Amino acid sequence: LELSKDHLVNYGKRVPLGWFKFHRTAQELVKGGVRRITLDQAKVVGRECQVEEGNLEPMLREYHNIGFLQWCESEPTARNLVVLDVQWMMEQMTAMLCKRRITRMTRNPRSHHGGKWEELGDTARFDPVLLPELWPDLEPAERQSVLGYMEHFGLCCPLPQEEEEEGGTPLYLVPSLLPALPPGESIWAEN
Fold it and tell me: What is the DSSP string of 5-66?
């Protein structure tokens, strides 16, 4: 342990009191059922906890790095969502990756997009029109943010659009849902 502390970037550095207050407040919010907040709400909490405005983003970055919360500052669609409960985010992401759930949604008579769920299960192509059925408890902006997190972590990626489709909603590929290759077959065509 003594040797490993030398490799920790911020080990031994002073931490502002406001950062501790923010962390405690975030824990209390989670206990109260608040799993995520917007970046603007995080700024308000930061001010209440006496975190200087210029220190809020470095604090969120540091707390993300050590696993206290998730904040994806480099992904524009995810940047506005600060996840206070990391397990909550894992559950949201798992909803898209779970084949049993996709099969259930394909068979759900209340689903308006049964064919699109079937396409996701068969081809690993996800159409964003499924977002309201996938995450019904989230606001539209939150759905886009969670999708942005998934894209950031490589759990899905937008597919290139054909010229005639430009301006439309892009489809996403979910690599973990790609069908298995039959034994003895190759992905790459022989020249």
Answer: GGG-TTTT----HHHHHHHHHHHHHHHTT--EEEHHHHHHHHHHTT--HHHHHHHHHHHHHT
